[in-house]
Amino acid sequence: MALWAAVCTSSAANFSSPNAPGTYGVGFRVAQQYDHARVFRQKTDLTSGAPATGERARPLQTLIWYPSKKTAGKQLRYGDYLRSAATETTFARTDAEVGQDVATGLSDNYANLNADQSRSETGQTMLAVRDAAPAAGKFPVVIYAPGSSSAAHENADLCEYLASQGYIVLASASMGVNTRGMTIDLEGGEAQAADISFLAGYAAALPQADGSRIAVVGYSFGGLANVLAAARDDRIGALVGLDGSVRYFPAIVQAATYATPERLALPMLYLGGKPSTAEAMNRNKQIPSYSLLNQMKYSDLYNVTMYTMEHAAFQSESLRLGPEQRFGDYTRDEAALAYGWMEKYVLAFLDAYLKNDAPALKFLNSAPKANGVPPHLLSVDVHRAEGTPPTLATLAGEFASRKHANLAEAYGGMSKSAPGFKPAERALISWGEPFLEQKRYREAIEIFELTNALYPDSGRAAFYLALAYDRNKDNARAIASYQRMLGFWPDMTEAKQSITRLRSEAQGKQ
């Protein structure tokens, strides 16, 4: 991709990050790849009505910022990021096509800019150097999830800042299931969540990346998709929401029945704009009936309210190109100052939870005034995790800590603090099966005894318990369990044959 041909002007750019970069240089490259496990273009082209041609797999053009050596190189201009957006779904485009796309986008989306302003903004020098030599070492991974239908570069300033501080940052565009535009529904959120997991897998192939330390930063709708991704992908170890839609679309989150506090027991930083009054929310019918954030009892949750930031100010593209009206009662300079503090809190959170940095954790837990935050700029509310989540994984860990004994007692202790905790029958059976295969019959029996206690009307549970007793040579209990199972499945030949065999063995011993 050709570099942006910047035109130098005397006019100042609208925005530059208020924070000094970190100790690393910032390298940048673009990976054009497909997720061949998912279809993006449907069989029939929606524009022409004709059969679709070419690659139909989901395109995931990935922007990669990484810690690099601080060597001389040609730094990107902001316009280079705009050019990258022109190839998000069609990788093979000419420079002329890309240039026209950028010009049209500026004209359509940022009509507030005159020609001089456009040249100034697009020509501004950035931190990143294309294909710079990587710094030595392994670095934590941050996946950036853009807002609804937005380009991957929408928060390039934050992404560059984090890379300069020792993070590999990956981002792809926000797209719907089969369209470039995102759909504001569960299907759209799950499509972006799957993109996030794809990037987590891709990160594992990067030589610099430490795949055991992954966080996802999501702006707006990306701050809902990252929650859905974390609920299903436990490679994700921390979440950041930049005025995320997990707050604004509670019905979508609630429809994702798997996105429970138990499955989201990971640290989270939520930075939100100035809240509306109850009266305004009531007028606009915005009062939610459900709040996932209020229920995340098993998470360290840092809720930061940014009083001088409207929604658009949480992404730097608006600060650079958007009109002043996007920032509500505040000036662009006031919003930019707050953006700088947003960056500081994001960095402190990531350093604390991905790098185990004690000073960063102290920063998070200190009053804003102690951190040097200007008065009235922001407030912080901290909720500490309340113990471990009641999950099958937690129960398995407790069982192991007891040297795989007294499972019923371990479950009883967990169910006292979480009365609704009841692992699925099939999940319990799947847990017990490897113990059977490894001939660890005592452990398997404890698991299947618990399964039968929780699911007394299940023939399947009775069968697995009978099998465990049988292999452990506990013939009397095996016969009783097989007989109980026949009460559910009277025609099961295997059970009848097993009872006959066990009785014969018992008679042979007399």
Automatic annotation (TrEMBL):
Keywords for this entry? Hydrolase, TPR repeat
Gene3D superfamilies xrefs: alpha/beta hydrolase (3.40.50.1820), Tetratricopeptide repeat domain (1.25.40.10)
One Pfam family for this entry, by name?
Answer: Chlorophyllase
Highest taxon, organism lineage: Bacteria
The answer on whether this UniProt entry bears the keyword Hydrolase reads yes
The residues bearing each TPR repeat, given as ranges, are 425-458
Q: What is this protein called?
A: Tetratricopeptide repeat protein
Give the organism, scientific name.
Answer: Duganella aceris
**Taxonomic classification:** Bacteria, Pseudomonadati, Pseudomonadota, Betaproteobacteria, Burkholderiales
